[in-house]
Amino acid sequence: MITKEEEFLKRLQAMFQVEAEEHMSVLSAGIIELEKNPQNAKSMKLIETMFREAHSLKGAARSVSRNDIESMCQALESLFADLKNKRIHFTAGQFDLVHQSLSSLSTMISRTGTTPVHEGGDAIRTLRSITKTIEPGATITKHDKAAKRRSKPGNGKATDTKTRKKEPARAIGHGVLSVKKESAPTDAADEKPAQRETVRIQTSKLDPLFLQAEQMIQSKIAAVQRTVELKNIGRFIGAWKSELRKLEARRPGDNEVQVKEIIHWTNELLDETERSILGVTDAVEGDQRSLGRMIDDHVESMKNILMLPVSTISEVFPRLVRDLSRSEGKEVEFIAHGNEIEVDKRILQELKDPLIHLLRNCIDHGIEKPNHGTITLSFEAIDGRNLEIRLSDTGAGIDVAKVIAAAVKAGVVSKESAATMSRQEAMDLIFKSGISTSSAISDISGRGLGLAIVREKVESLGGKVFVESQPDHGTTFRLVLPLALSTVHGVLVKTAGHSFIIPTGNVERALRVKSEEISTVEQREMISIDQELVWIVKLGDVLGFHQRVKAPPLEKEVSPLSPHFIHIVVLTQGSNRIGFRVDEILDEHQILVKSLGRQLQKVRNISGAAVLGSGKVVPVIHVSDLMKSAMGSLAMNTTTTTTTEGPAEAKGHKVLVTDDSVTSRTLLQNILEIAGYDVITAVDGVDAVTKARAGEFDLIVSDVDMPRMNGFELTAKLRKDRKLSEVPVVLVTSLESTEDREHGMDVGANAYIAKSDFDQSGLLEVIAKLLSPNRRSADVNQT
Cα separation of 273 and 270, whole Å? Predict the structure, then answer.
């Protein structure tokens, strides 16, 4: 008879296998792409991605006690770390070895059950032989040794039993709950994976759904009735028109009495039609209100179904802390609060990995000397729509000096910048990838990756991460996230002639102030809010629009004696607080954020788009990116920005934009038109040549990879044309190899910009230089 614990273990194994296969897919695709282009601009990003996948797979394997897979991933991590730090470079033969090792790892993953298999030893030694960083006599880990003892013929059962007793429940991996329990080997064919993506729902949560379903039947009946009423009105109007035509046909030429009768009859029918339409209109408005309430209730009920208690992921944390602390020779007490708080299932799934990284960090870095302490994890619902997570330890706290030294060593900050950092700014460096204060690399930490993953994951969920620490008083990580993922509220603003939505989760306040309340400090605008000075920047400038045409001055809308008001939206992100000037603050909306798609994944400062009730599509601000961009703009001297020179440079210049992609073509057109340029578009090189010869253009912007005539051929053709030979050409393309760049310059392009590095302010700067009257004959050669 299968016990509940055995059933639970089978379910865990099935979850692990699904997750592991996803990691393997990324690893396999990444190594193939790296083999094709080992030295191009994307190689470092590929290596970083594979490094993270191996790291997450290692944690998942640990969670289900697959020590064989964990050891394999540890070797892969070391390999990718050496690649990342450029200590090694793969040869063709070594690529083959990595492929073989990944194949072995895939075979190991396909085996179900908690008992490790032992075919991975050779693959691990192969991977380590590539790095050449481990002594020949130390190529087997403790997990390998344990596996070897268990697999030796004649090895006593006592050793196997002892080993099992010493291996208690382990960690949670990426997206996988886990405990450790050794069981007898079973035939893989006999073990069926548990049903995927299931949710246990309380019957009390289903009752509202049944009620709403019954109410929808009434809405269906009402909609049918409204249709019948409208059809009756339509038939009535048709009959009326028919009778009117008959009366007009019989009417004598100047019979005034009959004309009055027709007019009176017509007025009576108009009154009847008006009453019918008003009746239907009132009924439809009532139906609309009823349906609106029903939809809102239904959405809330569905959200409630997907809400699960935090305990679904936190129930294994005590065992995790116990095992990790014992493996580190430390005594740690774990305290949890708020496990009953219900959170969207999708958010809980994404929170597993970040919380594991934070717990491991607390044990490894927080609880140091003395080697005992307390870790407290609490969950709390705030404002009815947000979740606050606090993870605190009673350890030594963050050594700011070590963090700064590690950041300088890793090249994240310069010595000069580090010297002027505040304590909070220095602590925020722990969230940068590659920064670790650990002097040794272990299977717990030391690679400087975990906390970077935490911030990235939390911000991708629309949340924020804060850290507080005092020497000898411990460290507290605070995560604030939405309780549910669905519709969000946003503030609709207008700047530089365009509308944007800012998610209200990061909006501290929206206000209107008098112009004299804004002061200038160090050539930057500031305002006092709650007795604290807050920097102010123009939203349009941060987004790169550089407003060329000034908005109508507000003085025209008020009397000369009235003050000039300025609209400001104050945003917060972590410890940063910045005010953004906008032309108008229009309204607050409930929105559904839609993805921009693969072609526009790298649009800076924009997270998606929303469709308003009017049908207008409005970009949604990515607050985290916007704050980083704003901090960068504040670091610059405002007198050197291009915004003061932009209008004069753009005025009167005509630009031809050539791209076969309607999305890219429209994006470039909008950027240039907002900057004040007169823009004409062409769909490919042939179309561009025709339009260039027919018109007068000051500059041509073109894609390279196009049908009929590509950008290289277009540039070469323009250079051979007497009329167009001197017109500057800027190539904006996804072809970013050194050979492509050199080819672009060889055929006569004045600038070559890769789309992966695309920055609209950089494009505008290049164009401004090329159109400057003082431009030298030398090319800009932007890359």
Answer: 5
